[in-house]
Amino acid sequence: MTSSPLPHDPLWPRAGDWPVDDGSEAVDLMLVGVPTSRTSLSATQAHTTPAAIRAALRRYSEHSVSLDGVADTVLGEALRLRDAGDVPDPDTPDGEVAATATIAALHARSALVVALGGDNAATIPAALGGFGPDLATAGLITFDAHHDLRDGVSNGSPVRRLVEAGLDPRRIVQVGIADFANSAPYRQRARDLGITVIHRDAFFDRPLADIVGDALEIAGAGGGPVHVDIDVDVCDRAVVPACPASVPGGLSAAELRRSVRLLAGDARVRSLDLTEIDAAADTPDGRTVRLAALLVLEAATGLAHRLGGDALGRTR
């Protein structure tokens, strides 16, 4: 990403630079980095991405315009926002267990935990930490071009690993699955497990809000927490060139942004991750990382709406 000094304007405060979490209080949204990359099926430096997303947040403001033009949202006024930094060494077995415990502790005092990957291996600690003791009733929604049901341990296996950990596959919904990005055996594995698959083309025929609503109903049917895995390679490759496995014809940036806001606005969603971006491979204009930063802000806006945070002006 090309860098240039950002102008200072006291009437245009920037997003990002949220206070460092000190573990002493309940918060609304907790940001945490999970810099996985070592087990990726594609060469990647995805471990560099959490820092890049944090830097990109400063290119935006925290002001979101409401549809009625009256009750706008200013995130820093509506929410307690904290950054817990990055978990160490999440690619090792011990590091993954420690990351899961860290995220579970953050989850216990947060309305929403947003985990910044890393490749899709970050979904394991992000989801298990978000589920905590409620794995038996939990649900999972993935926005992903791929099923992630591969054998072994890699960024292609988190959904299979979560099922093996005890997640009921009948409460897994995979949104945005693409043609020519999977195999027939893994498609059959999804069928055999009872996973609900919503193909990318559904967005041509159905309202986006209906798709998101159906996913929430299925994933939330057990009454437990829902984790949302946003594998950004669900988007069109022209939009996310820093996602190694993205394909032409995926979702638009606008479709993914709107989906994330709707998902975070639902009380069943307690944790969310953003994965599969290699910040080191982004275009000079940083379009992939900038989209990821906007997805963080969309999640925060959805949470503010959920908590009644429009223009609350609460003292923090």
SS-derived structural category: alpha/beta
Would you list the SSEs in sequence order as H and E? EHEEHEHEHEHEHEHHEHEH
Under the CATH scheme, the architecture is: 3-Layer(aba) Sandwich
- What is the third-level CATH name, the topology? Arginase, Chain A
- Beta-strand percent range: 15-25%
Shape: globular
- How would a crystallographer describe the biggest sheet? 8 strands, parallel
Treating each run of at least 4 consecutive H or I residues as one helix, how many helices? 10
CATH superfamily: Ureohydrolase domain
Count the domains.
1
DSSP E strands, number: 10
Just give the CATH class. Alpha Beta
Helix percentage range: 25-40%
Q: C-alpha Rg, in Å?
A: 18 Å
Q: Any low-confidence stretches, pLDDT <50, length ≥5?
A: 309-316
Strand arrangement, largest sheet? 4-1-5-10-9-6-7-8
Please report the distance between the alpha carbons of the first and last residues: 33 Å
Averaged pLDDT = 94
